[in-house]
């Protein structure tokens, strides 16, 4: 998959070593995304490809089974880190990495945190309603009223946090976050 034409063996070796270092680093850091080391290595390998790849090509490059590649690609596709592309004359599915790492992070952030917000707000509201009913059933119990008031206040603070987090997610989805924190622009080589 790599074109080493026009390079000496030593130059190709240096490029391969540099790429391997990045691929290994990406693989280790992908646990932040809930991704296995091998899937992280797959993403890193695909990052350096100059054209889309089939599952067979990935398996050959990684020395792993097509089934493993399929599982890894499905994970990366679900996270919007890899997407399927169409190429005229090719019947096999082709995949390539999403080149915009900013968008990859934004998509990941949105996917993971939306699920968390929905689950947690539902649990917080259910617990707040239960505590309210409990307090209403025994309004003269000072110990109970104190605990209900303290816990309800904590639950309301948590709900407000998740509502704020939802607005933050909205800035990622709309791209507004990049107005607040602009993307870094690559520096031109100073040769």
TrEMBL record:
<comment type="similarity">
    <text>Belongs to the GbsR family.</text>
</comment>
<dbReference type="InterPro" id="IPR036390">
    <property type="entry name" value="WH_DNA-bd_sf"/>
</dbReference>
<dbReference type="InterPro" id="IPR052362">
    <property type="entry name" value="HTH-GbsR_regulator"/>
</dbReference>
<keyword id="KW-0805">Transcription regulation</keyword>
<dbReference type="GO" id="GO:0003677">
    <property type="term" value="F:DNA binding"/>
</dbReference>
<dbReference type="InterPro" id="IPR036388">
    <property type="entry name" value="WH-like_DNA-bd_sf"/>
</dbReference>
<dbReference type="InterPro" id="IPR026282">
    <property type="entry name" value="MJ1563"/>
</dbReference>
<protein>
    <recommendedName>
        <fullName>HTH-type transcriptional regulator</fullName>
    </recommendedName>
</protein>
<keyword id="KW-0804">Transcription</keyword>
<keyword id="KW-0238">DNA-binding</keyword>
């Amino acid at each position: 998959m790599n074109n080493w034409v026009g390079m000496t063996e030593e130059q190709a070796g240096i490029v391969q070593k540099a790429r391997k270092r990045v691929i290994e680093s990406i693989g280790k850091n992908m646990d932040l995304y809930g991704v296995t080391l091998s899937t992280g290595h797959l993403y890193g390998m695909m990052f350096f490809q100059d054209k889309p790849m089939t599952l067979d090509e990935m398996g050959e490059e990684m020395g792993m089974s097509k089934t493993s590649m399929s599982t890894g690609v499905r994970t990366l596709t679900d996270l919007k880190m890899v997407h399927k592309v169409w190429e005229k004359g090719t019947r096999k599915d082709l995949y390539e990495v999403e080149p915009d790492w900013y968008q990859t992070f934004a998509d990941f952030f949105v996917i993971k945190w939306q699920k968390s917000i929905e689950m947690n707000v539902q649990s917080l509201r259910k617990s707040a309603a239960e505590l309210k009913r409990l307090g209403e059933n025994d309004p003269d119990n000072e110990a109970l009223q104190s605990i209900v008031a303290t816990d309800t206040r904590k639950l309301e603070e948590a709900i407000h946090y998740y509502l704020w987090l939802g607005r933050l997610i909205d800035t990622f989805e709309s791209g507004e976050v990049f107005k607040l924190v602009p993307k870094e622009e690559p520096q031109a080589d100073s040769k």
